[in-house]
Amino acid sequence: MSKESQMRAAINQKLIEMGERERLKELLRAKLIECGWRDQLKALCKDVIKEKGIENVTVEDLVAGVTPKGRALVPDSVKKELLQRIRAFLAQHST
Predict the structure, then answer these.
(1) pTM of this prediction?
(2) Which residues neighbour 11 within 8 Å (Cβ) at sequence distance 6 or greater?
(3) Is 3-93 a CATH 1.25.40.20 domain?
(4) Are the C-beta atoms of residues 18 and 93 closer than 8 Å to each other?
(5) In sequence order, what are the residues at sequence separation of 6 or more whose Cβ sits closer than 8 angstroms to the Cβ of residue 75?
(6) Contact 61/48 with Cβ under 8 angstroms?
C-alpha cells in the first residue's frame, strides 16, 4: 500500500469515526440537488436508456455511460466547498 493510499485510508477512517463523512455526504447531496445536477444526471440516464432500449440496458451499462459525464457536471464551487470542509476538519482534528 503506497503512502498516499495509507494517508487516504487514515483520513477516511477519521471522517467516519467522527461522523463527518455522513455530514459531508448530506451536504454534497443537498448541493447537487440545489444546483440541478441530479436533474441533469436523470436526463443523461434517460438518454442512455432511449439509445440502448429499455430491454437492452443493464445497471452496469447505465453506470458506465453516465459516471464520467456525471463527475464532469459537478460544479467547481461544490468541489471547492467540500474540499475546504475536509481541510478544515483535518486542521481541527489533526493528531
Answers:
(1) 0.81
(2) 86, 90
(3) no
(4) yes
(5) 35, 37
(6) yes
